[in-house]
Amino acid sequence: MASGQDFIMRTTYLFLMACASVLSALLFWGSFSYFQSQEIDKAEARLTLYRSALVAELRHFSHLPFLLSLDPVVTATLAGGAPEVLDRRLARFAQSAGIDAIYLMDATGLTISASNARSNPSFKGQNYAFRPYFNEAKQGELGEFYGIGATTGQPGYFYAITVQHPNGEDDGVIAIKIDLSAVQESWQSSGEQIVLANADGVALLASDPNWRYQTLKPLTFAQREQIVASRQFADEPLEALGWSFDHARQTARIDSERVLYIHTSDLPNSWSLHFFVPDDVALTRAWLTTGAFLVVLMSAFIAFQLFRVRRIGAALQRSEKEEALLRQANDRLEVEVEVRRAAERNLQKTQVELERAGRLAALGQLASSVTHELGQPIAAMRNQLAAAEMTSGTSPLTTKMEGLVGRMESITKQLKFFSRKGRDKFELVDLQDVMDSALDLLEPNITHCSATVNLERPEGPMVVKANRLRLEQVMTNIVRNALDAIEDEEARDIEIAMGQTDSHVWFSVADTGHGLGGKSFDDLNEPFATTRESGRGMGLGLTISAGIVSDHDGTISADDRPNGGAIFRIELPRAERSDLE
Q: CA-CA distance, 56 to 144, in Å (whole number)?
């Protein structure tokens, strides 16, 4: 029973929807036709105004050629008088009347006087016998013509009339040129779509400048020949606009846009004025009328469905409350997950720090053991050297050996850096002297590696307050690492640069070796971390150097060079002025 009622209800709904659709379609087309006819009536009134304004602009100066043909100065100039007098007179006439140009031609079409005689270019001296208005004037008619100026390249409307020669010889022609750009500018400012076309369908003026000098329909071969002979449109291609017109429905299609279309041919020279009006207003009104009908129709349906909507709304409210509770639970879960992730990150960080501390502790024990075990051999070597000096005297070899034994003692002392943090005696040291000592110590290594070491240093001392031997150890470690890196390379170059600022001194060591091997400085700073092959180092040099630099309140960094190799840079605080005094 229920299913039968549902079927009847669905069938009723479908029937009502079909009826509403048919009625809406009929109402839409009926109202659209009505509103469209209203828009066409308005457009015809606007077209009448545009036509009247255009005709008034064209006929405003139509009498002027006749008045000029009777001017005694004009006839005297045609009879051989001085043209300069007429040039000035025509220039005053053109300026006061607001005309583009006035000019006098003889019987052959040669311009003998012009208002723009002092302009460049000028009509004076030009022959316009090819223009249709000249031939019409010679035949006793009022010549009228629109075209692009053959001399100036500026379009205009031309009037011409014959001037009788006072001696009975061949008559001349007086012509004026009117600028119609103001008409086109008024069309453009109006925001409406207007086109003025001549008898051939060529757009002379248009509210859209891109339409100008294009044709409403393709030109015939004869029409093009006539246009070329009169030079009416210069070098314009005169391409067809490609518009389509439906005169019965008073519509047109412009660039795939459908518009309302009216036109009039009641203009001089068989010209036609075309007016295009978008049908948006009629379409909008038709949709509004149809929409209002549908609103009324739907209001009844909405009233019928209101009870069901209320029930559905209550169910939705319950669902929204449940969803809100679920979102709150999800938010709490996200907070707990984030807390656990933060705890995991802290745990990982603590583990890394513990591993590093363990390595440093092991290194401290190793340093203490090495220092203790090497102490006695070094003392024995020093005693042997003292005995050799007592028996054989001092020699260069014993002197150099004493220096090496002393350096070994200093290095073993510095190994205590990892077993206890002590601060050695600091003094004022010139960083350049420390670098020279380090390079002297490494001279055998440099020679053995056949390396080229370039040192760039600033002028003047680079004074820091530091422990000289510990800084020398840093430089020795860094340069020795560079020598090891380039040992197996073809290019064995080391670039050492030194410099200073107002607050810091610095030096850098760049090599052409294998680079950092994809590791960061933090990785290399770990104890026992090394990029050398097995057996060629314990990976303690950078760790010791970083600790020494840190004790001196400095920084150390390392990066790969773009063209291969690595560069290490160390910055130290510059000695304060009070320390230097």
A: 15
Alpha carbon distance 353, 359 (integer Å): 10
If DSSP states are collapsed to H, E and C, what string results for 469-508?
HHHHHHHHHHHHHHHHHHCCCCCCEEEEEEEECCCEEEEE
**DSSP assignment letter at 525:** T
**Which contacts qualify for 15-22: CB closer than 8 Å, 24 or more apart?**
20/294, 20/297
Distance CA 136, CA 162 (A): 9
User: Is the Cβ–Cβ distance between 340 and 332 less than 8 Å?
Assistant: no
Check if the beta carbon of residue 412 is closer than 8 Å to that of residue 378: yes
Helix 431-441 with 468-486: angle, nearest 10 deg: 50
The 10s digit of each residue's pLDDT in 40-71 is 888 888 888 888 988 888 888 889 999 998 99
pLDDT in tens, 70-119: 999 999 899 888 899 999 999 999 999 889 999 999 999 999 999 999 98
Q: State residue 461 phi and psi, 5-degree precision.
A: -75, 155
For 231-288, give the DSSP string.
TTTTT----B---EEETTTTEEEETTEEEEEEEE--SGGG-EEEEEEETHHHHHHHHH
Burial class of residue 104, CB neighbours in 10 A (0-12, 13-18, 19+): buried
Q: Count the Cβ atoms, other than its own, within 10 Å of residue 176.
A: 25
